[in-house]
Amino acid sequence: MSYLxxxxxxxxxxxxxxxxxxxxxxxxxxxxxxxxxxxxxTLLTYMKSLSRRKQVCAFTMxxxxxxGDSWRGVPLSEMYGSQSPWGSPEFSLVSPSFNHAVxxxxxxxxxxxxxxxxxPQIGHDKWDSEHVRMPCSSHSLYPVxxxxxxxxxxxxxxxxxSALSKPIRNSHDLANTxxxxxxxxxxxxxxxxxHKLFNEYLEEEESQYFFDVTLPEIAKLALALPKLIQxxxxxxxxxxxxxxxxxxxxxSCLLANAFFCTFPRRNSTKPTSEYNSYPFFNFNTYRFxxxxxxxxxxxxxxxxxxxxxxxxxxxxxxxxSFTRRSVPGRALPAWPRSQRPLGCLPLHVDASRTIEDADGxxxxxxxxxxxxxxxxxxxxxxxxxxxxxxxxxxxxxxxTEVLSPNEALMIIGAERYSxxxxxxxxxxWAGPHCDGSPRDSxxxxxxxxxxxxxxxxxxxxxEFSRDAITRELNKAxxxxxxxxxxxxxxxxxxxxxxxxxGCGAFGGTTQLKSLLQLMxxxxxxxxxxYFTFGDTKLRDEIVDMYNLLARHNVTVGQLYxxxxxxxQEKDVSQSQLNLYLEQVxxxxxxxxxxxxxxxxxxxxxxxxxxxxxTETVPATTTDLESQLENHSPDLFTEDDxxxxxxxxxxxxxxxxxxxxxxxxxxxxxxxxEVSTPQKRMSLFDTMQAIEGDQNPTAxxxxxxxxRRNSLLNDTDASMDEDKSDPATELKKKITKKITxxxxxxxx
Length: 747
Ligand SMILES: *[C@@H]1O[C@H](CO)[C@@H](O)[C@H](O)[C@H]1NC(C)=O
Ligand SMILES: *[C@@H]1O[C@H](CO)[C@@H](O)[C@H](O)[C@H]1NC(C)=O
Ligand SMILES: *[C@@H]1O[C@H](CO)[C@@H](O)[C@H](O)[C@H]1NC(C)=O
Ligand SMILES: *[C@@H]1O[C@H](CO)[C@@H](O)[C@H](O)[C@H]1NC(C)=O
Ligand SMILES: *[C@@H]1O[C@H](CO)[C@@H](O)[C@H](O)[C@H]1NC(C)=O
Ligand SMILES: *[C@@H]1O[C@H](CO)[C@@H](O)[C@H](O)[C@H]1NC(C)=O
Ligand SMILES: *[C@@H]1O[C@H](CO)[C@@H](O)[C@H](O)[C@H]1NC(C)=O
Ligand SMILES: CC(=O)N[C@H]1CO[C@H](CO)[C@@H](O)[C@@H]1O
Prior knowledge:
The chain is an alpha/beta fold. About 35% of the residues lie in helices and about 15% in strands. The chain has three domains: about 5-90 and about 680-710 and about 730-740, no CATH class; about 100-320, no CATH class; about 325-675, Leucine Aminopeptidase, subunit E, domain 1, CATH 3.40.220.
């Protein structure tokens, strides 16, 4: 047993105990985290690699932040693989091909003008079962009865044009307009919700403004359909990998048509109708304009009206792509055999923020297999809210066939237009939202929404059946592995932002769903940010369970088997899963070598392979929360970067004399410090001390004269160790990360 105190940068370690089987470090941050956060990351990464190198333990962490921080686990920067939400690699670019229909003209250099919507791609209307049947197609005919009671066919678009060209002064005019080319619904569509919205719910001036200014523009937009969309829109059918890209302007035009209910063959709710396996798209097919029972429905309509107001005022210049991913059974992971350790997965769990605010991450839509769910009906939960605050998402409902169990839909680039408050019945529109996310090289907003549908469960025993567990794992994995490199062992960025998937109306269990998503993320190698929607108990449960699994080096395959075994127990009840896992995981490691004798602090006798860091933040570091709230991309200014390099040198050179002033940091008088100055060392020397007896060549790589070089140079030359060694990989990553942190390039 020896005691070390590690003094790196401005982070101070205290009470460190090292013996052959465990490292127990208590860290106190002595300076405001605004400067320290990224060094702290570096340290955490190092600790992880250390634990893997020794192959005795996985890294676990519990952070007990003062100041009411809402998150646990690793910081969000670990989700991006960068300090900035926009530092992750872009998704594959928009490029027209046989399975990617691009409805606008892509300039030869691939770059779209920043604010000008791209021109439509030229093409010919296709009226068949592979493409969206357009209201403006010459094949779209409508039976009209003449005064003699005889019925003959008229071009539907002509009827629509004449109806929408007339003035529409109030909600009754609007209803009659829609009915004029949907005559069969004269007796069923009453537009009660629409009338209530415009005649009671909105202020008189608001309604007036809508009919005087906005609606005529929506009508014009709808009528521009033949100009704006010239090439056919393929249907994203089941069992295909297929993409569609549209300009935001084209989407607004399609939505304007849906607003006026112009799409042919989309009016029927009959099980035999052609589009039976597609979501509803005409706004009133599912009675969107009828509901009066709840204000939340009127608030959804307000979101839609706001969207139209925005897009007719200023035509958005970007594009959006929709990609269906379908992985056949043979290509799905063999879950029981997966060797992937869960402890490698960076996990961030937050109780206060929401998924749609997790910039830069793949945001999960808790979807209905018919996309949009009840957005055009009475629903008002996660998916519906997302679709009304980002209405461009709704156009997916026009062409996405119902999702199969092995399928997911990724939507990249949909802009957010509205703020909101509440949930379900309490949902309210809360004003305009200006989407500040940057555009990628293809002109898409850097917002990725992943639609995956959970199964609805009527009973726990069904949810815990082997088939159901496998189905949910596959579903999540198909989504999370979108655009990942199957050859790579490295973490894939950006990470996934998710939460209680399928745990509302679908009756799922949060303990199980969080674990399944953890496994799917680990398998797809994407970091996971989990948002518990205010539930701090769940947040802590998830982190505790993760720590347990990581500490015991549990793999995805093992956990799969444990859960399946649990599901075969007699009394499957949700409160017992975690207890069960705790028992089985702990007993599972009893076969490993008995713990060495140790007197270092440990709460539990079974924590044989624990590396645990308790993080204590002094009360002075109050701005951490605001830092993270804003997740500012540049915690470092350029000056800071230079200074920090300087400090590395200073620290390492002064290791012999710990009493020497450390220039910028005079906070070592902090009352928390109880270090033993004689043993104070720099981080990298400590690495050597700890690793030296394990692998001398490896430890050299980050040490001695090469230290600065390896910090400055993104070179793997010094790491000529066996490439397959996971620790080497990690070392590379650390070096890479350190280099990233100090890079002057904007990230
Ligand atoms: C970690 O350090 C803090 C501050 O010195 C102390 O209060 C706490 O008890 C320590 N925790 C452990 C597990 O030693
Ligand atoms: C942890 O799991 C990995 C992958 O299964 C394995 O290679 C390694 O030996 C395990 N380590 C321990 C200490 O069990
Ligand atoms: C879709 O693409 C994935 C690879 O990303 C492939 O494994 C799968 O077989 C493809 N699906 C179909 C139906 O071709
Ligand atoms: C373990 O340590 C205790 C005192 O800390 C000592 O009495 C005991 O003999 C040790 N056991 C072994 C196996 O070293
Ligand atoms: C440490 O810095 C203080 C002022 O910050 C200075 O007064 C003192 O002389 C310095 N001590 C050494 C050993 O350099
Ligand atoms: C050192 O800390 C004291 C308070 O602890 C502060 O007043 C002083 O400005 C600091 N000096 C430097 C150089 O940061
Ligand atoms: C980067 O590494 C090369 C050799 O590997 C060295 O010559 C060069 O000085 C290094 N650059 C910096 C900035 O340290
Ligand atoms: C009113 C209306 O548009 N009715 C159409 C609904 O869709 C069926 C086909 O699914 C058409 O035959 C109807 O004319």
